[in-house]
Design brief:
Strand content: 5-15%
CATH topology of the largest domain: Multidrug-efflux Transporter Regulator, Chain: A, Domain 2
Mean pLDDT: 78
CATH architecture of the largest domain: Orthogonal Bundle
Number of domains: 2
Number of strands: 5
Structural class: mainly alpha
Largest sheet: 3 strands, antiparallel
Order of helices and strands: EHHEEHHEHHHE
Radius of gyration: 29 Å
Shape: elongated
Helix content: 55-70%
Strand order of the largest sheet: 1-3-2
Length: 187
């Protein structure tokens, strides 16, 4: 199926390389379909980025694909709610909050306190198994008391290292903008 529209200037098609420069042209409808965005969103992002049509016809405007991609990704991902009108910013944050609610309901995001409780439970189980390890090794493998004491020292060092990392974790880079609610994403 050919989805390209004939160029009103007589040369080439939209979505194909432009004959004089070899650059690919694309119209708003094709860009909207490719990026799974509304035509109005594509048009708005192109205007915000200052992109002008490479070719204009009475039926449609054609833009260089590279310019469209840069405008869509620069405006959509990097910019976030920056530079939006107040009503657009409100819509943006409402949509973000609804997405967070949906992901929390679907359990692909978990509240941070639940995640911390689960990690604490796992660490407690792990340390509970490490604690009797020297005695088990002495009993089951015939370790001498001196060897068991060395294993106990090693286990104590591991336990202390875990405790130190939990109490005083290594520094993390500060996020630029804190999220509205602290959540942990589950893969």
């Amino acid at each position: 199926m050919n989805t390209h529209q004939e160029d009103a200037f007589g040369g080439g098609t939209v979505g194909a390389p432009e004959p004089t420069t070899g650059r690919v042209l694309i119209n708003l409808s094709e860009a909207a379909r490719e990026f799974d965005l509304a035509r109005e969103t594509i048009k708005d992002r192109l205007q915000r980025a200052g992109v002008v049509a490479a070719r204009q016809t009475p039926k449609f405007d054609a833009y260089f694909l590279r310019d469209v991609v840069q405008a869509v990704f620069r405006s959509g991902a990097a910019e976030g709610a920056e530079g939006l009108q107040p009503h657009e910013r409100l819509s943006h944050w409402r949509a973000a909050n609804e997405r967070l609610k949906a992901e929390t309901t679907a359990r692909t995001l978990v509240p941070a306190d639940e995640m911390a409780a689960e990690v604490a439970r796992i660490v407690k189980i792990m340390l509970g198994e490490l604690e009797p390890l020297p005695d088990r090794l002495e009993r089951d493998t015939g370790l001498t008391p001196q060897q068991a004491a060395l294993v106990e020292l090693a286990v104590d060092k591991v336990r202390e290292a875990i405790y130190a990392r939990v109490i005083d974790p290594p520094p993390h880079p500060e996020p630029e903008e804190p999220p509205p609610e602290t959540l942990c994403e589950i893969p």
